[in-house]
From TrEMBL:
GO molecular function, one term: 1-deoxy-D-xylulose-5-phosphate synthase activity
Chain's gene name: dxs
Species of origin: Guyparkeria halophila
Sites where the protein binds thiamine diphosphate: H80, G121, H122, S123, G153, A154, N181, E379
Pathway: Metabolic intermediate biosynthesis; 1-deoxy-D-xylulose 5-phosphate biosynthesis; 1-deoxy-D-xylulose 5-phosphate from D-glyceraldehyde 3-phosphate and pyruvate: step 1/1
Function: Catalyzes the acyloin condensation reaction between C atoms 2 and 3 of pyruvate and glyceraldehyde 3-phosphate to yield 1-deoxy-D-xylulose-5-phosphate (DXP).
Reaction it catalyzes: D-glyceraldehyde 3-phosphate + pyruvate + H(+) = 1-deoxy-D-xylulose 5-phosphate + CO2
InterPro entries: Dxylulose-5-P_synthase, THDP-binding, Transketo_C/PFOR_II, Transketolase-like_Pyr-bd, Transketolase_C, Transketolase_CS
Protein name: 1-deoxy-D-xylulose-5-phosphate synthase
Cofactor note: Binds 1 thiamine pyrophosphate per subunit.
Enzyme category, top tier: transferase
Length: 641
């Protein structure tokens, strides 16, 4: 059922937030309606993060109405809920290319607009960043507001607490807005979430607060005098009732909870807060998916949707749709093997930092609910928790995206590898992810992992390798990282092992070319599949490396010695990656050949489709073939040694 176009008379008037401030207050409810509809139309056309945006229509409008943006700084956490913010800040027409090559990013981005004072994509940074801005304003003597808007999910991360801890102590001039919709991507978890629920569901506090404030208002000048101690009175009441908020204990004045869809309440409350200084926290209750019934019912399914995702949701589904014949994703294959092991071995437990769905753990959750730990957005904790479990003989598996693991490399090194603990890391979204862009690209797990002692690193090229790697990891007496991309997974690319080790590379093809043009092409991970036709066309030998650590250097050196050049291809940072390590190791083994390393270039790759991102880094099939051909076509270089 296509979305019916609707007029957006008021929204059409808004080029900048200043235009919004010029509208009559009475027209704002209509504007909110228009914004919600424009959002649906836009996500229908482009896909993107829908449910979180539907939940912040009124909040976004109210913030830009009350605060003097961009002079006042709005720092949105994660940034996945900023589509309306972008619409109101001069990017509405451009949004038709959202997350596409050359279009606006799906997150905030400094380079995009002066209204995006801080870029994000990873969660829980907003309070730190806004605090930095508040302290800078203090240093420079500027009276500007710094406002962090953070979700209840993002609030579960350690960094958010670190920032609150600092801000409360400094008594910084900072407003933190907690956008509480009781959801992370999945239902939110944790004791803090329960604390927010208690705060939400304490009408007694609200009654006391309102009647107390009314009394003060009616007391005229005396009330005003007392008004300065109003926060103190309120704090006292909360203490008396035993419902003091954690935030007050940390030095913030706590306001709310208020209904984040009630525009009048939002405007009044934010207006009042704008007149105050010091650390303030406003608890706003919103509904993820608000205004689109299917998204309200299923905010998890509507966290992110593809093109036409809105109209599809509104079309009654037929249960007879043909099943897709496409191969499974890497995520599905890995999750299936994990479940297989969990079935066999009760020591196998899975840990996810708030990515149950994305990491393919729904099946595991249903089958082994007691053995799945969703720790919230807490990557560092997830890793060290696994370490603790491993010390007690469990076989923990941390299912994590490469990009989010970046948060926890100290834990991987210090807590896991240094103690040689048997923790398995299923590192998903390794490589270029596409529309989420550089904030979410998994470019660094290989170059980081290559240098960590004790850490085994599997780079499976197909489902067969992936299953074997997980099998190996779960009996190995030490840590192991298994990495794979956001893509479909080929079943079995075949090939012969180079030696008897379980971690041996596989030879897929032998070159028939004569010296001096015999090239050994070493494919790393998911790149191997696209190298098969290239190696045939260019007549190279082709090896599927399978394991980056341990690196099977002896059989590889033997094979390389029969060649005149070596080319490595990996979907990870070229700098310090597997290719670099391999070529150096070969040289140390006396095989000193000209080498070409293909990998993610030394710059951040912009968003686009996954194929466009690969092309941007020279890793699509055509570019790889061209690079190798150019390399082979330089006989001087090839014959130089
Ligand atoms: C460090 C990090 N871990 C995980 C994610 C993936 N992620 C994106 S949004 C999200 C849920 C955030 O929940 P919340 O902050 O409450 O925002 P909501 O979507 O509910 O508005 C998660 C887990 C991320 N972006 N960054
Ligand atoms: C905003 C965020 O970080 C997630 O929602 C992310 O976009 C999910 O990515 P996948 O679609 O790859 O699971
Ligand atoms: Mg939330």
């Amino acid at each position: 059922m296509p979305l019916s176009p609707r007029q957006t008379h008021l929204l059409d008037l808004i080029e900048r937030p200043a235009d919004l401030r010029a509208l009559s207050r009475g027209s704002l409810a209509t504007l909110a309606e228009e914004m919600r509809h424009a959002l649906l139309e836009q996500v229908e056309a482009t896909g993107g993060h829908l449910a979180a945006n539907l939940g912040v229509v009124e909040l976004t409008l109210a913030l830009h109405r009350v605060f003097d943006t961009p002079y006042d700084r709005l720092v949105w956490d994660v940034g996945h809920q900023t589509y309306l913010h972008k619409m109101l800040t001069g990017r509405r027409a451009w949004m038709s290319q959202l997350r596409q090559h050359g279009g606006p990013a799906g997150f905030t981005r400094r380079a995009e607009s002066e209204y995006d004072p801080f870029g994000a994509g990873h969660s829980s940074t907003s309070v730190s960043a806004a605090l930095g801005m508040a302290l800078a304003a203090e240093q420079k003597g500027e009276d500007r507001h710094a406002v962090a808007i953070i979700g209840d999910g993002a609030l579960t991360a350690g960094q958010a607490f670190e920032a609150l801890n600092h801000a409360g102590d400094r008594q910084a001039n900072l407003l933190v807005i907690v956008n509480d919709n009781e959801m992370s991507i999945s239902a939110n978890v944790g004791a803090l979430n329960q604390h927010l629920t208690r705060l939400r569901s304490n009408p007694m506090i609200e009654r006391f607060r309102h009647s107390g404030e009314e009394m003060l208002a009616q007391a005229g000048p005396l009330g005003e005098l007392l008004g300065s101690t109003r926060a103190g009175l309120r704090d006292g009441m909360r203490h008396l009732l035993g419902t003091s908020s954690l935030f007050e204990e940390l030095g913030f004045r706590y306001f709310g909870p208020i209904d984040g869809h009630d525009l009048d309440t939002l405007l009044d409350t934010l207006g009042n807060l704008r007149e105050q200084r010091g650390p303030r926290l406003l608890h706003v209750v919103t509904q993820k998916g608000r205004g689109l019934a299917p998204a309200e019912r299923d905010p998890v399914g509507f966290h992110g949707v593809g093109r036409n995702g809105v109209s599809r949701a509104m079309t009654p589904s037929t249960d007879h749709q043909p099943k897709s014949a496409a191969p499974p994703t890497w995520t599905e294959v890995a999750a299936g093997r994990l479940e297989h092991h969990a079935e066999q071995d009760e020591r196998v437990v899975a840990i996810t930092p708030a990515m149950v769905e994305g990491s393919g753990l729904k099946g595991f959750a249903a089958r082994f609910p007691e053995r799945l730990f969703d720790v919230g957005i807490a990557e560092q904790h997830a890793v060290t928790l696994a370490g603790g479990l491993a010390t007690e003989g469990m076989r923990p598996v941390v299912a994590i995206y490469s990009t989010f693991l970046q948060r926890a490399w100290d834990q991987v090194i210090h807590d896991i590898a240094l103690q040689d603990l048997p923790v398995t890391f299923l590192v998903d979204r390794a490589g270029l992810v596409g529309p989420d862009g550089p904030t979410h690209a998994g470019s660094f797990d290989l170059s980081l992992g290559m240098s960590v002692p004790n850490l085994a690193v599997a780079v499976p090229a197909d489902a067969h390798d992936l299953r074997e790697a997980i099998d190996w990891a779960l009996v190995h007496d030490g840590p192991c990282l298994v990495r794979y991309p956001r893509d479909r997974c080929p079943d079995d690319l075949g090939g012969q092992p180079l030696d008897k080790a379980a971690t041996s590379p596989r030879l897929l093809r032998r070159s028939e070319a004569q010296t001096p043009r015999r090239v050994l092409l070493i494919g790393i991970g998911a790149m191997v599949e696209r190298l098969i036709p290239i190696s045939e066309t260019l007549d190279t030998t082709l090896v599927n490396l399978r394991w980056a650590r341990p690196l099977a250097i002896a059989p590889l050196a033997e094979l390389a010695a029969e060649h005149d050049a070596v080319v490595t291809v990996e979907e990870g940072s070229r700098i310090g990656g597997v290719g670099s390590e391999l070529l150096l190791a070969l040289a140390e083994h006396g095989v000193n050949l000209p080498g070409l390393r293909l990998g993610i270039e030394d710059r951040f790759i912009e968003h686009g489709s996954r194929e466009e991102c690969l092309a941007d880094s020279g890793l699509d099939s055509r570019s790889i073939a061209a690079s190798i051909a150019a390399f082979i076509g330089k006989p001087d270089k090839v014959s130089a040694t």
